């Protein structure tokens, strides 16, 4: 339950600190006094989005802090799962900075808005007129039936399997599309792969083949040049080798006269040795040279094959062709692999479907068993609320499709009067009837949930007199097991509360501010009398107020 609320710099509220008690509490005030502001501030700590328009003073930050007593509600696992410190007296704080940024804390640990919203689900149900409209939606109607049928654990299990099922179906569809695409190109891919494989390509092969081709194709020219070089080197009278040897011999005669001559002699000797080695290498190359038309043709054919493959695949290197070959091999092999994967996925999906169908069947059965109980309880409460001839026709209808909450659709029909046909709630129920039905639903749900707190924001819309009195009694009964707040304009309901808070505006200088105070016994009599007769309170209104309170 919420034990206190502190608000600073929010809308018309400068600073407000208020404590709350368990049981049934009433909040009243004139239209525009600030009841919606109070709910807006509470909404911030429950994870709703905020903006700078929420700040009363744009230069200061807004702080909303709420204390919750949660020791009885088994929330330790939630705190552990979200890495938060669990405290039986938990504090939630929300700050809006002048820059527009927002921060949230649970027991001083920073949290994001999603975590705050998830936690608020276990703390407070704020009922608004908008939620009354949800009563006619199938999703909300299922929530009512599933709460009574105690289907929560089954639904969690179903949704977990449904997530696996949808993921597997998505993967299967993707694999089938991939398989279909590959299958269309299978024969062509196999042809391309075999063509590349038979080419027996090797990294660096193209450059080597081109070099060999040039050498073989120009063998006569190369031979002629080698012969000239060898002749120049070895000619008996003027050959380079002969002259170098004579040069070396002449220089050798001077080596004893200075170190410089010795150095020049050694360098000359090195040149002679190197040149002699070059000549020997040229001789070997010359001996190896011969005209080989067959090898030349073989190399030419391999080169043409590579050039054609490069042109065909629009690449420039052999390495790129090898990569294409590898990719094609993967595609060719993946046909068989994909077939295996698809078969496994299909079998897995069938297994998940069997699990989903079994859980959905159990959920559906428990829903059908819960329907008479729900109808009976609704009729019982609504009879007290001035609807003696109300009837419900609730049918749980199995379907072939998987929904987020099972395999059922729901027909939730309503008739308020004798002799009238059943119809959809949103079409045949008036605003006052919808309010009473929603209160009946909340009253029933309170018996099946551990929700600490519920806030009814003008659920009495469209009702008055004795019906309002009965609605107040129902809310008071609910407060025996949970904390209940009712924001109301009706004195009959206001008189049923154990505590009564008043929202009001005051003018301080040039500022208008909203405030909230807990009324004492005398103030409460005056407030209810004013709700009965307006600002000019008569003695009869005061007596009537006392009678209602008693």
Summed up, what is this model?
The protein has 19 helices and 15 strands. The protein is of the alpha/beta class and 550 residues long.
Structure overview:
The chain has 550 residues and is an alpha/beta fold. It has two domains: 1-135 and 449-519, Rossmann fold (3-Layer(aba) Sandwich); 142-365, no CATH class. It has helices at 35-45, 76-81, 113-120, 129-134, 138-149, 152-184, 186-199, 205-217, 219-234, 240-252, 259-288, 293-313, 318-384, 425-428, 431-446, 465-478, 491-494, 521-533, 539-549, and strands at 2-10, 13-19, 24-28, 62-69, 89-96, 102-106, 109-111, 124-127, 391-403, 406-415, 423-424, 453-457, 483-487, 499-508, 511-518. It has a six-stranded antiparallel sheet. The longest helix has 67 residues, at 318-384. The mean pLDDT is 87.
Topology of helices and strands:
Elements: E1 2-10, E2 13-19, E3 24-28, H1 35-45, E4 62-69, H2 76-81, E5 89-96, E6 102-106, E7 109-111, H3 113-120, E8 124-127, H4 129-134, H5 138-149, H6 152-184, H7 186-199, H8 205-217, H9 219-234, H10 240-252, H11 259-288, H12 293-313, H13 318-384, E9 391-403, E10 406-415, E11 423-424, H14 425-428, H15 431-446, E12 453-457, H16 465-478, E13 483-487, H17 491-494, E14 499-508, E15 511-518, H18 521-533, H19 539-549
